[in-house]
Amino acid sequence: MKNLKPALIAWALSVGAAFATPQGFALHDTPQPVANVRYEKDDGSRGDMEDFRGKVILVNVWATWCVPCREEMPRLDALQAELGGDDFEVVALSIDRAGSQIVRRFYDEIGVTNLNMYVDQTMLSMTALRTVGLPTTILIDAQGRELGRLVGPAEWDDPEMVSFLRSFIE
């Protein structure tokens, strides 16, 4: 059954625009390489994108000063609560120059409890991930390749979006 999943993903990617993607999520014709960006974790340790190898991730590049980013964070938290586990994680990657303290304060203020905290104070991840605006959310497969992206806010806990993302999780 696991061998069917890569075939299904390959098919979905091959039909591109004909494949029903929710809320403007743009799938690539073929998976794209992803830069190995670095970040700081909540505990102060450092990590990089290779830490997620073997897991499908949804990387949301955001900042506390970005109003649409702030508004969609509870929905990303709900998505992590529903789909998060050994095979999938929402990676909320903050680019706040003020660092992890401001992100922790924001998480506490709005009640984010399911998302881990990842911060890139250097903002280099924006260039490395080719983001053109905030928020930008990138779907990355278990091999570390970009399957598609959505620029702008989305209703991440909407049943259509959840179903769409679930189809990529092995």
Give structural notes:
The chain has helices spanning 4-15, 67-83, 100-110, 124-128, 159-166; strands at residues 26-33, 38-41, 46-48, 56-62, 88-94, 118-119, 136-140, 145-151. The protein is α+β, with helices and mostly antiparallel strands and 170 residues long. Strands 1-8-7-4-5-6-2-3 form an 8-stranded mixed beta sheet, covered by helices on one side. Residues 13-19 have low confidence and may be disordered. Residues 26-170 form the Thioredoxin domain.
Summarize the structure.
This protein has 170 residues and is of the alpha+beta class. The protein has helices at 4-15, 67-83, 100-110, 124-128, 159-166, and strands at 26-33, 38-41, 46-48, 56-62, 88-94, 118-119, 136-140, 145-151.
Protein structure class: alpha+beta
Number of helical runs? 5
Helix content range: 25-40%
Number of strands: 8
Order of helices and strands: HEEEEHEHEHEEH
Strand content: 25-35%
Strand order of the largest sheet: 1-8-7-4-5-6-2-3
> Termini, distance in Å?
10 Å
Q: Mean pLDDT, nearest integer? A: 90
Q: What is the global morphology?
A: globular
Radius of gyration: 15 Å
Which blocks of ≥5 consecutive residues have pLDDT under 50? Answer: 13-19
Major β-sheet profile: 8 strands, mixed
Question: What are the defining features of this structure?
Answer:
cytochrome c-type biogenesis, single chain, TlpA family protein disulfide reductase, Thioredoxin_ResA/DsbE_sf, 170 residues, alpha+beta, Redoxin
Topology:
Layout: H1 4-15, E1 26-33, E2 38-41, E3 46-48, E4 56-62, H2 67-83, E5 88-94, H3 100-110, E6 118-119, H4 124-128, E7 136-140, E8 145-151, H5 159-166
Parallel strand pairs: 4-5, 5-6
Antiparallel strand pairs: 1-8, 2-3, 2-6, 4-7, 7-8
Main location: other
Signal peptide: 1-20
InterPro entries: Redoxin, Thioredoxin-like_sf, Thioredoxin_CS, Thioredoxin_domain, Thioredoxin_ResA/DsbE_sf
